[in-house]
Amino acid sequence: MNRMFERGPLQGVTATSFTDVKATNWAFDEIEESAKSHAYFIDEDENEQLSK
């Protein structure tokens, strides 16, 4: 779904949105992308980063 909407994966997330999804989970960045309402910027490596 994220690709269909041209979203993420979201980098720079420090707090998980779900208690059952750890930051070490292989899909963590994709899950956070779809779960968080957020502002972001594209870094020099063309990764989406969470704006602070």
Keyphrases for this structure?
52 residues, alpha+beta, 1 helix, 3 strands, 15% helix, 15% strand, globular
Strand content: 15-25%
Average pLDDT reading: 85
Number of helices: 1
- The level of helicity is 10-25%
The SSE order reads EHEE
For the largest beta-sheet, the strand count, sense and barrel status come to:
3 strands, mixed
The oligomerization state is single chain
**Gap between N and C termini, in Å?**
25 Å
Textual characterization of the structure:
- It is a single chain.
- With 52 residues, the chain is an alpha+beta fold.
- Helix content is 15%, strand content 15%.
- The protein contains 1 helix and 3 strands.
- It has one helix at residues 28-35, and strands at 10-11, 40-42, 48-50.
- It has a 3-stranded mixed sheet.
- Strand 2 and strand 3 (48-50) form a beta hairpin.
- The radius of gyration is 11 Å and the shape is globular.
SSE order and pairing:
Elements: E1 10-11, H1 28-35, E2 40-42, E3 48-50
Parallel strand pairs: 1-3
Antiparallel strand pairs: 2-3
